[in-house]
Amino acid sequence: MKLLHLSDLHLGKRVYEYSMLEEQEYILKRILQIADAEKPDAVVIAGDVYDKSVPPAEAVSLFDEFLVRLAERKLQVFVISGNHDSPERIAFGSRIMDAEGIHLSPVYAGKIEPIRLRDEWGEIDFYLLPFLKPAHVRPYADGEEIASYTDAVRRAVELMNVDRSVRSVLVTHQFVTGVSRSDSEEVSVGGADNVDADVFEAFDYVALGHIHSPQNCGSPTVRYCGTPLKYSFSETKDQKSVTVAELKEKGTVDVRTVPLVPRHDLVELRGMYDELTLKSFYENTSWQEDYAHVTLTDEEDIPDAVGKLRVIYRRLMKIDYDNRRTRSDAAVSGGAEVESKTPLELFADFYELQNNQPMSEQQSAFMKELIEKTWEGEA
């Protein structure tokens, strides 16, 4: 059985106040072309269909059109809700759409029944596990302590009673410990949402969503496909793609990718103003149409730099300076270092500054637990 693995469409997203809807419409059409070429049996969309729990009408219409086109191709489609989605809105109409091969994850209620398909190798079960927090699972824990996201997902998997004699696919949306994040993701406090990869041991393929850069989690069969588009400048070096997973006999899974090329890319440009405005610098490139982040290295600020540069770089999103003044400011404030630290690390720095000694292991453990509880209440 051949699967196209997608996730994190984030339909309706705005990046630096630029609407991405036209770019998203373009890339979804490209995905349909890939589906026509690959002829998969199923498409899985591992959460964050929308960028907001109450998405704009245009985003809903775009996803509706995408589902219609997939249904016309007689594909089985599996969709779960992510942390950006409303589980209730994603689940709406699911019992009616099941008959058309469009399977939407229900609101989590303790038990997930597999959707069983069959191919030349036999039966294959699909489990749709939407984004979970510990609070979602505690009512179904039978007294077992659910203190972490790993505990929550482990318990949810136990309740599935996975038939290990049958091939199985889990579609879920969580942050697996150890993977690389990008700036466009929603970051938790203190790594509170980490899930250990060993909770997925029962499955032949795990189609993950949540992380925006494509990557494996130790094994190629536990995989983030990444976003179909770049949503932050930290992703400029990513090669966006669709993941293709082929499940053959039990224990045999082939995983590969098909590149996705956007209509307009995100690019980072750096140099002095006079250099960046030379025709020889930008001609024969796509930069004039791409979404650009420009870093000027001039020692003096350029008056109305944004307005002047937008004459050339029409989709200029962001401009900043890298010179003696900004480097001095950064050294004083520690800005870049601060941005890279977790809230727990920041509190530890503050504690040491105030008390002239680091926190003890007991204090650190207490603070970590407090941060995790705060994050769970706000998430």
**Overall spatial form:** globular
Strand content: 15-25%
Summed up, the helix count is: 13
Overall pLDDT level: 91
Tell me the span between the first and last alpha carbons: 36 Å
What does it look like?
The chain is an alpha/beta fold and 379 residues long. The protein has three domains: 2-259, Metallo-dependent phosphatases (Purple Acid Phosphatase, chain A, domain 2, 4-Layer Sandwich); 266-329; 341-378. It contains 13 helices and 19 strands. Strand 18, helix 9 and strand 19 form a beta-alpha-beta unit. The longest helix has 18 residues, at 21-38. The mean pLDDT is 91.
Q: What's a concise summary of this model?
A:
The protein contains 13 helices and 19 strands. The protein has a six-stranded mixed beta sheet with strand order 6-5-4-1-15-16.
Write the layout of secondary structure elements.
Elements: E1 2-6, E2 14-15, E3 18-19, H1 21-38, E4 42-46, H2 57-72, E5 76-80, H3 87-91, H4 94-97, E6 102-104, E7 115-119, E8 122-129, H5 134-137, H6 149-160, E9 167-173, E10 175-176, E11 194-195, E12 205-209, E13 215-217, E14 219-224, E15 241-247, E16 253-259, E17 266-271, H7 273-276, H8 279-282, E18 291-296, H9 305-310, E19 315-321, H10 324-333, H11 335-339, H12 343-355, H13 361-378
Parallel strand pairs: 1-4, 4-5, 5-6, 8-9, 9-12, 10-11, 12-14, 17-18, 18-19
Antiparallel strand pairs: 1-15, 2-3, 7-8, 13-14, 15-16
